[in-house]
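Structure in, sequence out. Go:
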């Protein structure tokens, strides 16, 4: 029953993601415009080029606003990722950053345990 639910939800999410590929591509292009506008605005020296890159960034922002359905497509892709992990019985984690413990006493105890073996 669990595998059937995962298969059904995955099929629905795949259909939604495929039907929203147009807005996803438009959203990616508008994000590229915003990034390029910000990047070149910081590097530009003259006022005219700064104005041009601000306008370019605003065009990208307005284009991203018009592609709001792409957020539903992004959500469907995330659901597909989670269901794929669940299908393979893997743990779902969105943060791979492991916090390293900075306590010097713990590190000392670990090193001392290695030395006394």
């Amino acid at each position: 029953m669990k595998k059937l639910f995962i298969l059904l939800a995955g099929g629905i999410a795949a259909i939604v993601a495929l039907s929203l590929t147009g807005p996803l591509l438009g959203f990616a292009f508008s994000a590229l415009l915003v990034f390029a506008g910000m990047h070149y605005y910081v590097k530009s020296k003259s006022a005219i080029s700064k104005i041009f890159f601000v306008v370019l960034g605003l065009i990208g922002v307005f284009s991203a606003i018009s592609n709001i359905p792409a957020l539903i497509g992004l959500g469907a892709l995330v659901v597909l990722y989670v269901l794929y992990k669940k299908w393979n019985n893997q743990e779902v984690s969105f943060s791979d950053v492991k916090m390293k413990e900075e306590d010097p006493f713990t590190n000392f105890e670990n090193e001392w345990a290695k030395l006394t073996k």
